[in-house]
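G., the chain you wanted modeled:
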Amino acid sequence: IYEGLRESFAAADHLLRYVFISADLENAEKLRIAENFLESIDRKFPIAFKPNAGERGAGVFIVKNFEELNCRLE
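Predicted structure as tokens:
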């Protein structure tokens, strides 16, 4: 549903920005992707960190700084 909404020009300004980071990547690559994403949103914390699969809130964290981000990416 979200991908379909992203294709809508009218909805674009109202959707959260996100990046998918595969668990299969090395930690350094995960961190690089996360840092690039943060740069694209002007390094604004806090950010939501969640698994790709819906688990009714399981595995969802609010990350408040780079230290927490690095810990969650490991």
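Helices lie at 2-6, 27-40, 66-73.

Shout if anything looks off.
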